[in-house]
Structure formats: C-alpha cells, structure tokens
Amino acid sequence: MELNQYLEMFIEESKEHLQACSEHLLELEKNPEDLTIVGEIFRSAHTLKGMAATMGFEDLADLTHKMENILDAIRNDKIKVNAEILDVVFESVDHLEEMVFNIADGGDGKRNVQATVEKLKRIEAGEPATAPSEESLAGQEIAAAMVANELEQPVETAELKLSYDDFEKTVILQSSEQEFNAYEITVALRDDCLLKAARVFMVFEILEKNGDVIKSTPTVDKLEEEQFDSEFHVAFISKEPAEDLQKMLMKVSEVDRAIVKKIDRDMFVTKTTAIEVTAEEVQQQPVVQENLTAVSEEQPKKTASAKNNNSKSGHASSKTIRVNIERLDILMNLFEELAIDRGRLLSIAGDVNHGELNETVERMSRTMGDLQNIVLTMRMVPVDTVFNRFPKMVRQLSRDLNKKIELNIVGAETELDRTVIDEIGDPLVHLIRNSVDHGIESPEVRRAKGKPEEGTVELRAYHSGNYVFIEIEDDGAGINRDKVLAKALSKGIVTHEQSLTMTDKQINELIMASGFSTADVISDVSGRGVGLDVVKTTIESLGGNISIESTQNVGSVFSIQLPLTLSIISVMLVEIENEIYAIPLSSIIETSIIRHSDILNAHNQKVIDFRGKVVPLVFLEEIFEVPRAEQKNDGFHSVVIVRKGDKLAGLVVDSFIGQQEIVLKSLGNYLTNIFAISGATILGNGKVALIVDCNALMK
Fold it and tell me: What is the SS3 assignment for 463?
C-alpha cells in the first residue's frame, strides 16, 4: 500500500483533529463536569490514533493512545478533571502538534515525549502527575514494603522495575508461549566510569545479538546523552539462559554488576481483580474497544438518518471536496494569463472598431469578470484558520504571567485571500502577546484601579469595502505617552524638536519603531524590542497599514487594514515620458492638476498646500531616472495625492491614463529589492508597466 499519496490528507486531517482537541479542552476547563465535551475530545484523539497507526507514525499513535486512556477514564468517571490533568493533556496536544508539523516538514514525527508519557501513566494509575521527590519516594518504598510484608503479597509483584503498557505486556506474554524467556535486566556501571554512553552501546550490542529489547528506563535517547546516574533497566526477550546473559554483560569493561531476573506471567496480575490476563485476552481487548467505539460513533449517524427519512434520499451528500492549494495557485496563474489576454483583446477591438468583434469581446469580458470572482472566492479562507491558535496561547500566557485574561473572538468567519492568511499569523501573535504582557495589568493592579480582576482581549475581523479590518482591543493600562516619548528620545528615534510637535497618535506609533521596547525586564514574552516593528513591516508589505488608538488606564486598540486579495488589484495608470507606471488605487486619495507657481519650498523640499495641509511632492521622473528627450515645461503638473497612514505625498507625473484592473506579477529573483517598485504587470498593448510602492516613497 503506497501511503505517500495519503500523506497530505493525513496532515490536514490531523491538524483539524488537534485543533478540535484544543478547542474542546478549553471548553472542558470552563465546564469540568460536562462529559459530552470529553467524549468529543476522545473521538478526535481516537481517530487521530487510528490514522497515525495506519500511516506508520508509531510515536504519534502511542502518545495519542496514552492520552486517550486518560480521556476514557474521565468519561467513565474513574478520574475527576482537575487543572493538573488538563495541563498534562494540553502538554500532550502540544507535543502531538509538533510531531504533525515535523511530519509536514518532511520529518519522521519522532520526539522525546517520555516525561509526558510518564505523567499520563501516573494519572491513569490514580497518582499525582508530578513525580514525588527522591526522599518521598524512598519513604513510599519503605511503607509499601511494610504493607507488602503485612499482607504477604507475592514477592514477584514488587520485583518489577519497569512499568508496562498493554502492548508491551502482550509481547511478553506471547513470547512465553513461543518458548522465549522474558527478563528484566539491571546494569550498574562503576562510579568512575568515564564513557558511560560507550558502555551502554556495548551492553545493547550484546543484547541485540541475543534477543530483542522491549523497553528501557531511562529511554535510549537519555542513555545516549548520558542522562542517568550509573544504573539502568532493560526489558529483554531471549532464548538464552539468564546465567549466560549475566556472564556476557559482565565482560563489558566498567560494568559493576548485571542482574538478570526472569519475568513470570503471574507478575502481570491486575491489582484490582487479581485475575490472570492471558495473551488471548490481551489481544482481544483492543478489538473490543474498537467495536465499542464504532458502535458509539455509528449511533449518531443512525439517529441523523432517522431524522432524514422524510427527505428524498436517506442521507445528505457531501457538499465539499479537498483540493490541493497548489492546484488553486496554478488555476490563478492561468486566469492571470487570461486577464492579460483580455486586456490585449480589448485594446485590439478598440483599434479595429468592428461591431461583431466589439460585441464578442464585451461578452467575453463580462464572463471573465464572473470567472474572476469565482477564482478569487475559491482562494478565500476564513480568518478562523489563524484565530483558532490564539485561545490556547492566551491561556498559557496568562498562566506564565499570573494574570486572569479572557479572549473574545468576533468575526472569525470573515474571509481573506490565502496569500494574506499565510502572512498575517505571526504579526497577530506579536500583537496579542503585546496586549497580554504590556496591556493587561496584574489582578492586584486592576483591583487597585477599580477594574475587574479578569482582563479582556477582543480579537475581531470584519469586511469594509475591498478591505478586511482586524482589530485587537484590550481593557488594560493603555500606552503611557510620557514613558514612550522618553524612551524614544533616549534611543534617538526622535529629536527633542520633533517631540514638541508630535500628536498623541504619532507618539503611540513610536512603539512600532525598530528596537523600541518599554519593558523594564526582558522576559520570554517580550522586552527585546523585536516584534511590533516586524508587524508594521509585514503588514505594509501586504499593502495594508496599522494604526493605534490608546487611552491610558482604559485600554488600546490596534487596527490592521488589509486588502482582500494580492493577485488582482485596481490601479491608476500614469505616464512619464514614454514609460507607464501603475499606482494602486488603495493608496490614492485623489488626482489633481496644479500650476507650477503653486509649488513652494520648505526645508529644501518642494511642497504644495493641499486642502490646508502641507504635502511634499515626489517627482517620479527623478526617482526612477526616466530619460527625457526634452524638458517638459507647460506651466502645469499632474499630481497623484497618495496616503500612508497620516502621511500624504504628491506624486508628480506627466499625465493620467485611467483606471484599470491589473494582474500583479513579481519581478523574479534577479530583480529583488528595487526601490519603490513592488512588481509589474503586462498591459493590453503587450507593454510592461511597473507598479509603484507608495509606502516606500513616504518612509
């Protein structure tokens, strides 16, 4: 069976199941008595385990199985939900996510999760998740020995050094039926041993030549890294006698002692029922569990089917299919070529001026417009795919910072182009971490201010025109104007003269300067001055902008404006000499014709008075070094007024051509970092027009 063809499907479905687990765990934390939520988590974990085992990712399947055991015990009222158990299950989900992402990156999904597995085993056994200290362990062992002597329990039960799950017990029990011996081997190295890892390797080499190693404590990874004192234990299956194995192991230099003890079947008697578990019963147990799960999952389907008996068909057919995103990219590229040809045809039809040709091209243009809407809609993805990672992140941050924080998400169904979705995740992480760390105060401070102990961070998204707005609002401390200004002055970000004329909004936006931070202490969450400057750069590279509104001791709102799509944009075509440039309409306020006498000089900069504001002029012929046959001087200038946040600029061109929808193409790997050029497009006449990056001109 060729599994590679199913790998992408496995990765996508695994991410969905893990996301479902995270969301339901957050619900369970709020409603720990609701066992229906536990059932939902169990079903997601059970499905993930089955998929991982089928695909051959045993580590992933094993960890999921251990987590599933805990969930099963909870839903059967054997274990009560508490914060400690939820923390361990959250930790397990985090490891599972890292394994899946490792597989997606071409890895094998292996990860050292022994510590988490041990916690899960302890919880399943009804013990605290955190291992007791060595002193308390010693006391427990003495007490256990005294109880064992009083109750005259079998010595063999106390002799087991290792703990075994069902699978490992099955292997050992089956091996005894096939005339193999099962041993627990304890190897102790000398205290002055210098190369412990080398001795461990030699011990395992002997064992692997004479049988099969079932497990070891510590794990092999820790043994290789010498993360143990001097003693380790191995479960081993072999046909060799115990005496021979002991002699072979003692021949390894620097081995102080080697103890080989045979494991009896009676050692696997369960503590609760004291009934011997046979190999046949252990083999059947997973099958019974699978059948029970199948029945429980089938029951809702039957109920749903019964409800739909009145419909024409007994069941609802699927309305969606999974499509590889690469295919949508190919479809988009093909449509972009069609859009270029459409522009070419419109240009030719205008030159020829033939009635039937004009009619056909017009009808084709309308059809292309409908097709364009469909193609762009297919690429739209709900922002929920980005937002869904934040509840768990805020939960962890609030614990790390000892704060009480509630995250509200509004408008998660709002859709954005996939290319924008791919880029917006990291900026939102920085903004939310900033709100949680710098914005929301500690419970003590909030009480002193008369606020509720629990702070609120609201993440919302909504459409407005051809843009999507994403806002992060908190009811925290707000931005301290004086502190920000003092820090900016000390770092040389602004001069004293500039600070005297700055508005509150301009001062707020100083926190997005490179290297700026008001944190007094550098922590794992923030304080290094890296984050908000990256946010600003990323958002502006997507053709968007970010603004900040803040009131001290009331809260702050970070507002991000993003274009719906980056592939097909509306532009104003302008001409300079014989060259054509495209200016995105999203940046344009209006166009204007000015007299040469309207141009003023201020601080060695040519400016104009535009509706009471002083607007600097940018002559594109100088920026792009456009060669002229002769200087143009008719006393008038064509100006495009553009905006970046609160800043305005006037781009001086020769003439306006008109508005047009164009396909944005990159300049390729050989023309990277061209100043003030964000890409190019092919016009209807076959010429290439460069797209002006207005943000770069107004830095």
Answer: strand
Which residues does residue 187 pair with via DSSP β-bridges, in sequence order?
Answer: 232, 258
Q: Phi, psi at residue 13, to the nearest 5°? A: -70, -35
* Among candidate residues 648, 660, 664, 461, the one with its CA nearest the CA of residue 562: 461
CA gap 170, 147 in Å, rounded: 29
Cα–Cα distance between 516 and 527 in angstroms, integer? 9
Percent of the chain's residues with pLDDT above 70? 84
In this prediction, residue 132 carries a pLDDT of 54
Q: Which of 307-316, 348-357, 394-403, 594-603 is least confident?
A: 307-316
Residue 400 CB: number of other CB atoms within 10 A? 13
Q: Tell me which residues are annotated as active site.
A: 46, 68, 434
Q: Does the structure show a pLDDT above 80 at 417?
A: yes
16-30 b/e with 16+ CB inside 10 Å = b?
A: ebbbbbbbbbbebee
Six-digit token string for 29: 């934390």
* Inter-residue contact 675 to 698 (CB < 8 Å): no
Q: Report the chain's terminal Cα–Cα distance, integer Å.
A: 57
CB 249 within 8 A of CB 233: no
Distance in angstroms (rounded) separating the CA atoms of residues 672 and 667: 7
Phi, psi dihedrals of residue 599, rounded to the nearest 5°: -80, 130
Each residue of 562-572: pLDDT tens digit?
Answer: 887 767 788 89
In the numeric block, which tokens belong to residue 578? 């014989």
| Crossing angle of the two packed helices 114-124 and 83-104, in degrees rounded to 10 | 140
Q: What are the distances in angstroms from CA 470 to CA 205, 362, 547?
A: 59, 38, 11
What are 181's strand-pairing partners? 238
Buried b (16+ CB within 10 A) or exposed e, 668-699: eeeeeeeebbbbbbbbbeeeebbbbbbbebbe
